[in-house]
Design goal:
By secondary structure, the protein is mostly beta strands. It has a single domain, classed as Immunoglobulin-like, CATH 2.60.40. It is 11% helix and 39% strand. The protein is built from one helix and nine strands, in the order αβββββββββ. The protein has one helix at 6-17; strands at residues 25-31, 34-35, 39-42, 47-52, 60-62, 69-70, 79-83, 88-94, 101-106. The strands form two sheets. A five-stranded mixed β-sheet has the order 3-9-8-5-6, with no helix packed on it. It has a four-stranded mixed β-sheet with strand order 2-1-4-7, with helices on one face. Strand 1 (25-31) and strand 2 form a beta hairpin. It starts with 5 loop residues before the first helix and ends with a strand. 21% of the residues are buried. It binds copper (II) ion. The site of copper (II) ion (CU) has 6 residues, from loops.
């Protein structure tokens, strides 16, 4: 996707998601069919925004107990936010690209 445009999209996503006092947001990007990090520690109630910087769709999900989510199809240039309201470890995957894996540790 157009890399100049990506930060603008990200800014829009962050505005839409909003944020309450005491809750933080972190961003994970998908680029080159890889997540930008393999492991991330966040605090309970934090939000993670997943941004697709690739030219192909991704489908980011977690089946981990108590931390399940599914962002469905994230088209190129789009993003989705997940708020983690339980402590634990979310094994995050892409349903389309099996090699895309990361862990979110919710403390
Ligand atoms: Cu993918």
């Amino acid at each position: 996707m157009n890399r100049l445009f990506a930060p603008i999209l990200l800014a829009l996503v962050l505005v839409v998601v909003g944020s309450n006092v005491g809750e933080a947001q972190q961003v994970v990007t998908a680029d080159g069919k890889q997540f930008s990090t393999t492991e991330m520690r966040i605090s309970y109630q934090d939000t993670v925004v997943f941004m697709n910087y690739d030219a192909v769709p991704h489908q980011v999900f977690s089946s981990s107990n108590g931390l399940r989510f599914n962002l469905k199809r994230l088209l190129p240039g789009s993003g989705g936010a997940v708020r983690f309201a339980k402590r634990g470890v979310a094994e995050v995957r892409c349903a389309i690209h099996r090699d895309m894996r990361m862990k979110i540790i919710v403390e």
